[in-house]
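ok trying again, last paste got cut off:
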Amino acid sequence: MIHASSNIDPHGSDTIIRSVPSPVPSSLLAWWFQCGKTEAQQEQQQQDPLGPTGCLEVIYGIALHYLHETLDHIALVLLAYSVLCVVLYRVMFHRATGGSRLGRWLVRRSHLPPCSRALLVTAHPDDEVMFFGPTILELRRRQCRVFVLCLSEGNHDRKGAVRRQELWDACESMGVRPEDITLVNATHLQDDPTAEWRAVTIANQLLRQLESLDAELLITFDKEGISGHPNHSAIYYATASLCLSGMIPNNCKVLTLETVNLCRKYLSIFDLPATLLLSTNWVILSWKARRAVQNAMRLHNSQMVWFRKLYIIFSRYMVINSLREINKSDVEFEILDT
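nice, full thing came through this time. structure:
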């Protein structure tokens, strides 16, 4: 910008022409805002820098400065949290020395209640892998015999026969014997989010299986059902009714798979610190075991739509299961709360 000075030059010239560098706007938006002004507006701003327009620019500059600082801090926190998750995960499954002392301590705390026979109750084919895959693999690693009870054949899309075979294939890939899989095909337990599954009907199925199998561990959904599916929640309320009535065998413990919020649900291994801090029973798979669960899920080929392909990549339930043991007092509190 060129300014003319009215001072008399000692050498006789009337004016002195001097160049003053234009201030460079601090951002592209500020530069665009400056260019949009007329010369009259710019002169007015120079004469009255604290006018309405000047105040707005000052506020904008301060807000932009603090926004940049806040984003920098958030980025650093996220980076530190990611590094912490990766380090924890590597420590737990460090192979060079058979696992570090900290890693062995973490794995020791992550064990499920000891048992030789466990019953897993699900609502539809693919639930056993989509949600309970890590638990099944951990139980099989401990030589626990896993029985799977699926209460419907998943015929909502008229693919019941296909999904039945997919259930057997997926369970066998995770070490479950074919004879240990039971699929219920009842008219009053159909795969339908709008259909009401009566708790007494489900409870009768559960009790029959528990008594015939002599299971020491019963595993199913919690009251939120992980995905919010009403068929999942119905299984919890049937299990809760058995707990309240004292009909669960004394030697059988009940574990429910914890529902987490949407953010945690798709963090994969980055949900590790929250799981370690907030859960009492949990299973965390190695990366190799995680691939085994993913491959088992892919055997449910009829369900492999685009969002489930994303699910098996990002979902924590492919690598982490956190479970809670429930008893009569817990059930009473949850039902009253509901």
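cool. The chain is about 50% helix and 15% strand. The first strand starts at residue 2 and ends at 5.
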